[in-house]
Amino acid sequence: MTSANEPTSRLKCGGCGKVLSVPISLAGRQVKCPKCAHAFRVPDAKPTATPADLAPPTAPSPNRGAGRSTASDPGNVSLSREKLEVLYPNFFTSSGLLMRLWKSLAGSAPFSPSAINKHLQFGDSRAAVVVSVSPLLVAAYSDERDCVVMLKFSEELVATYRLKPGSRLITVNTYMQGPNRPVADLIEGPLSRGNWHNVIPMIADFLSDDMDTIESRKQAIKDEEWQRTAMLGAEYVQTKPGKARDGRPLDSWKPCVTSLF
Predict the structure, then answer these.
(1) For the chain, what percentages of helix, strand and coil (3-state, to nearest 5) are there?
(2) Pick the CATH number of 67-246 from 3.60.21.10, 2.40.410.10, 1.10.3720.10, 3.10.20.90
């Protein structure tokens, strides 16, 4: 039985949505929800609040409400070094370090493994749908702007993950502050909350081995969100043909167009 003085982490059950206080000593182990018996992996120990280096400041939007600084549905998955190396074969070499430093100077890339891991653990998890496999395009949904971020990946991933048009994935999003309007490659939808200037998506399936947690989150997402993501993805490729961001984690923040046209 847990001691009253033992430090805990607050985690949301992917089965029933109950917020649980889980002892930090159980980090990395499989546990079951006492309410619904859903099994999930306890992430590595982390503070109960979103760390300051991940949570962006509240976006200034006096007419449309302030943006959230914490995720409604945190990803709660951990980074896999092996999967990261599939996307960036030289990530942990000296040349990879130089690449990461350069990208960090050029923009807002989470260039360290720890930053990517925090993104996956604390970011907001939402629906992502494969739009096409040649090229491999994935539409990652954001409820903040009611839009998708179109992401392009190597077609080698198609066979690895047995992907086809309509395959369901999970995106974990964090956000960037800026002007009230979204960046130019986002097509804002009618259900937009008007929060945040840019979306930084990462596809959890391609970056984490915590597949039980990922599958549980997929089951928790409503059909309406899956359908809307697929519809917005199809509309996007018609509206902006040939336009997609590099979907890998060092680059997915970068808009694929810089103007409205």
Answers:
(1) 25, 20, 50
(2) 2.40.410.10
pTM, two decimal places: 0.71
- Hey, where are the domains in the chain? 8-46, 67-246
DSSP secondary structure of 70-102: S-SSB------HHHHHHH-TTTTSHHHHHHHHH
Q: Which amino acid is at 83?
A: K
Q: 3-class SS at 139?
A: strand
* 93-135: pLDDT as tens digits: 877 777 777 666 666 556 788 989 999 999 999 999 999 999 9
Ramachandran class of 254: left when φ > 0, alpha when ψ lies in -120 to 50, beta otherwise: beta
Q: Which of 68-77, 155-164, 250-259 has the lowest mean pLDDT?
A: 68-77
Which helix (H) or strand (E) element contains residue 150?
strand 147-153
What is the sign, positive or negative, of the torsion defined by CA atoms of 96, 102, 103, 104? positive
Number of H helices, E strands in the chain: 6, 10
Q: DSSP string of 197-237? A: SEEEEEEGGGT-S-HHHHHHHHHHS-HHHHHHHHHHHHHHH
CA distance 149 to 198: 10
Residue pair 137/151 in contact by the 8 Å Cβ criterion: yes
